[in-house]
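Standup notes
- DV: blocked on the single-chain target, sequence here:
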Amino acid sequence: MLRLSIGFILLACAFVVGSGDANAQALGPENRAYAVDTANERYTAQFRTNGRYEDSRGARGSWSYDGRSLCMLVRIPYESEYEVCAPWVDLRIGQSLLTNDWTADRSLARVTRIE
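- DV (later): unblocked, structure below
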């Protein structure tokens, strides 16, 4: 009986911890910054409140997050405008991922959360 009770407590704790991670992921990118490294450039992307996007290239735009996907409309001055949507991957500060979902030409980029 004691083993069953301890097992139940551990299972309940795992569920609570897992639920916390799901809540953190639901926040999306708001008020976060990411370093983006591609074969051709390196820049910092900022996801401001109210869906405003800014980056160190001088690009401006908007972003939206529906709880599962991040969509970005990015306007690079004197160059182009592009829109990308991708499944959201939550990163802790210092974590990176390799993706082709953040670039206009779908080239590979390393995205690292810095803030």
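- Follow-up: The longest helix spans residues 2-25.
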